[in-house]
């Protein structure tokens, strides 16, 4: 298994062969048609790391650097977390260096489940893996019902 990180994109390659990670952009013409443009990611923007631990360390460094920049420029850091394997990558003893108290977390793939459901709720998984150690970090969470429309309205 090869783990590949590009600037702004994290991808896991299971093929063991060369990876092609496209850069995408969307444009709209004056006539209203939409085009998707896909171009290869520049080679200098692709890093091949040895294993999941190395990817996790890299992800944590990216987050810490982004937090430092955001706090320096705006006084606060906002982090959107998709769930899945990224949650495991964010777990690390090297994460709280004072910036977490100036951080707001939003989850980008919430499920309509109770927020304490450790098997389904991204928020519960984040707490178990790392969020309890991120002193002062605030998370925007849903109410925990199974009503998708109400949850979307509340979350918004």
From TrEMBL:
This is Glucosamine/galactosamine-6-phosphate isomerase domain-containing protein. The keyword Signal applies. One of its GO terms (biological process) is carbohydrate metabolic process. Residues 1-19 form the signal peptide. InterPro entries: Glc/Gal-6P_isomerase, NagB/RpiA_transferase-like. Residues 51-155 form the Glucosamine/galactosamine-6-phosphate isomerase domain. Keywords: Signal. It comes from Minutocellus polymorphus.
């Amino acid at each position: 298994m090869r783990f590949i990180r590009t600037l702004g994109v994290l991808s896991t390659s299971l093929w063991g062969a060369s990876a092609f990670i496209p850069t995408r952009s969307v444009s709209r013409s004056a006539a209203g048609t939409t085009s998707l443009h896909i171009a290869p990611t520049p080679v200098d923007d692709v890093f091949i790391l040895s294993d999941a631990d190395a990817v996790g360390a890299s992800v944590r460094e990216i987050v810490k650097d982004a937090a430092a920049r955001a706090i320096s420029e705006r006084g606060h850091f906002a982090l959107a977390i998709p769930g899945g394997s990224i949650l495991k990558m964010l777990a690390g003893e090297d994460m709280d260096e004072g910036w977490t108290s100036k951080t707001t977390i939003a989850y980008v793939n919430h499920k309509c489940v109770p927020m304490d459901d450790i098997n389904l709720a991204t928020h519960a998984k984040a707490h178990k893996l790392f969020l309890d150690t991120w002193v002062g970090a605030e998370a925007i969470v849903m109410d925990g019902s199974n009503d998708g429309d109400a949850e979307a309205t509340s979350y918004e």
